[in-house]
Amino acid sequence: MSSALESASPVAEAEAAVDQRVTDLIRDAIIRGEYVPNQRLVEADLGDVFSASRATVRIALLQLAAEGLVERLPHRGSRVRAISLEEAIEILEVRIGVEGLCAAKTAASISDEDAEALGRLRSQLIESVAEGDLVEYARLNRYLDVRVRELSNHATASDVLARLHAQSVRHQFKLSSRPQRAKISVLEHAAIIDAVVARDPAAAEQAVRSHLLSVIDALRSLSTSEPGAPADS
Amino acid sequence: MSSALESASPVAEAEAAVDQRVTDLIRDAIIRGEYVPNQRLVEADLGDVFSASRATVRIALLQLAAEGLVERLPHRGSRVRAISLEEAIEILEVRIGVEGLCAAKTAASISDEDAEALGRLRSQLIESVAEGDLVEYARLNRYLDVRVRELSNHATASDVLARLHAQSVRHQFKLSSRPQRAKISVLEHAAIIDAVVARDPAAAEQAVRSHLLSVIDALRSLSTSEPGAPADS
DNA sequence: GGCACCCATTTTGTCTACAATCTTAGAACC
DNA sequence: GGTTCTAAGATTGTAGACAAAATGGGTGCC
Known about the structure:
Four Helix Bundle (Hemerythrin (Met), subunit A); mainly alpha; DNA-binding; three-stranded antiparallel sheet; 71% helix; 10 helices; 2 domains; Arc Repressor Mutant, subunit A
């Protein structure tokens, strides 16, 4: 029965997303903040905007709901999921374990060239903060995260992290736009890179842990200093 | 704009699944092993079996693909995803971090009654193994996992774990059906319960780690002793 | 004035039909 | 005999239409 499928490799994983044009467009719009938390996402409207049928949009929304970006209420529609501070902290707590694993794996297996590249990235990070270029710093930060995931060669962890990351983009953003915060976090990032380049898995895991715990603290104090501004719409 | 949705609580999460009848049926069938890995899942056929339209089945398959239970190849259909040994180990590695977190959280906040209940569960586990009732032992085991997740009160971690668990059911099953293995793992489980009941987060996290590392070892040696039997169909 | 009920509107959930794509088998050709 | 092209079959992707559910406003009643 069906000879063609039998022989396909179990590697694929990523390329499977081909026609998910609409899904990607909506996801990007949410992540970019074009659609704000709690905003309603009416299937017909979105189909109109992206010139796709309702069936396509519907599938996209279900997909995004599975990713945790969208909330669906039966017979009542979809809306952009609002990630509360508590949830954001939960996400960071989970990331401690998973990113720690990635960092450890990377430290254990990194190649010489990749290690060198990370070293350069380290310099760039420090430089961007010194120049006060927070946008560039945020970009390099994201790149570091992605790179460590890739280098860990851990598909499962990468999947989990990608999902978690997408959900908490908004909260991350609030933090990374603070110059004060950048000066602290850049040191922590440098420490992570140092441990990885030194090929010390335990130290890398610990460095990630320290960093994320620090982020949690920062989020907490940020929220107490400027009390709940839940009105996003 | 839209007053009804604005006030909905961000808790829901679970009850959102109402009409997912078909999704649940297919998921159960896969987890129970009714549909074996690599088996093709043709939308029209499934619609016939579950007396639903293709559109409904299609959505169910996309949902399951997002959960990692089903693999979709564009224009070529869906099939039950085969979790390789490497992937199963990856999943366990991730679980170390996340379940460790849950255990630590639970240990830090467990109530007296819940602690007592866990103590009783501990006795039942030991008893079931002593009597050689592996089916009962497996059931209790699942319950322990679920319970620790619940008690941790950590929605994000629970979500991640639920997803990972569903994927690796098959491999878990292979292990838990070995009497030899049960005798080892029951001690580890008892250690986890002890640490949680003693309200020692660090010890609980460590006990989980030890246990899962031991499972990884067991899986590895199991696969070397009975070399690749990839023919599931 | 407030409360319960009912109906119109909006939006989702489901089904059927059509188009696009891929696979497979067979025939023509070298 | 083997290879390439072509066409038929099977299966997925998309669109549009209908049915079901929930919301919101309005009317009647107390």
